[in-house]
């Protein structure tokens, strides 16, 4: 699965972060193999999963030949990404969490995104997915299905999602990403880690492309036996959304809160 398939994505390491979803990981790896692509290296970085999952990872490693990086205890998503990136030897990194399933159209988008990054050094990240309920709001069409992500503090940019130019969703980036934006903040809460990188990305003038028709590229699937992480904030937002005046006020509060936090660097 590294260099024996039909199409080698040259110069790219596939980095997968994993935690207690070994069946989902196997599904991801089998899907990639089914698309007949390979990478310079596949790294699976595990965040101290339960023993049964770690044992399965070791068996999968022997069968599929990827690089496995283990952790004795769970240290959070930031640590998991950092130790995975430390093992990368190629100039580019394709990052995917284990519960995503790439569709056939992703292969073309990946090749196009890589070609753009190789020929246009201004781009720091190419994004391939967003949750359907929170697409990035400010885009300018660019090329090959990608759009430039626009960020501005001007008040007429009223959607608080503008602060999420960076995302932990599937993306392509340069191996030197942390040299420009810093290492991932290591905290137990993965949402905190992601938000810290969102801030650093904007503060350090990060430039990003976003595949507008992202629904064509990935399916995000959490089966009942390997569910997604519970996020209280998402439940709160859904509750507010059922009451329009309350939801409007909540979104304005989020925009103000995130703007002040960004300006004061908190």
UniProtKB/TrEMBL annotation:
UniProt key word Transport: no
GO MF terms held by the record: transferase activity
Keywords from the UniProt entry: Transferase
Pfam families xref list: Glycos_transf_2
Span of domain Glycosyltransferase 2-like: 14-111
Name of protein: Glycosyl transferase family 2
Annotated organism of origin: Pedobacter cryoconitis
Lineage, highest ranks first: Bacteria, Pseudomonadati, Bacteroidota, Sphingobacteriia, Sphingobacteriales
């Amino acid at each position: 699965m590294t260099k024996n398939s039909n199409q080698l994505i040259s110069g790219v390491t596939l980095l997968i972060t994993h935690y207690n979803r070994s069946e989902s990981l196997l599904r991801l790896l089998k899907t990639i193999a089914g698309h007949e692509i390979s990478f310079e290296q596949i790294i699976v970085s595990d965040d101290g999963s339960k023993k049964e999952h770690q044992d399965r990872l070791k068996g999968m490693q022997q069968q599929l030949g990827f690089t496995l990086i283990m952790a004795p205890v769970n240290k959070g998503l930031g640590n998991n990404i950092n130790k995975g990136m430390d093992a990368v030897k190629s100039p580019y990194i394709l990052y995917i969490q284990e519960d995503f399933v790439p569709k056939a159209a992703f292969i073309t988008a990946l090749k196009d995104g890589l070609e753009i990054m190789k020929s246009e050094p201004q781009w720091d990240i190419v994004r391939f997915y967003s949750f359907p309920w929170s697409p990035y709001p400010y885009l300018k069409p660019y090329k090959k299905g990608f759009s430039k992500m626009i960020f501005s503090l001007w008040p007429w940019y009223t959607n608080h999602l503008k602060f999420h130019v960076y995302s932990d969703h599937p993306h392509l980036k340069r191996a030197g990403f942390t040299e420009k934006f810093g290492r991932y903040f290591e905290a137990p809460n993965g949402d905190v880690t992601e938000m810290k990188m969102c801030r650093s990305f904007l503060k350090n003038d990060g430039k990003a492309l976003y595949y507008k028709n992202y629904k064509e590229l990935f399916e995000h699937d959490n089966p009942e036996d390997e569910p997604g992480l519970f996020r209280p904030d998402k439940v709160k937002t859904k509750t507010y959304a059922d009451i329009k005046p309350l939801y409007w006020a909540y979104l304005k509060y989020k925009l103000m809160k995130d703007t002040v936090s960004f300006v004061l660097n908190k």
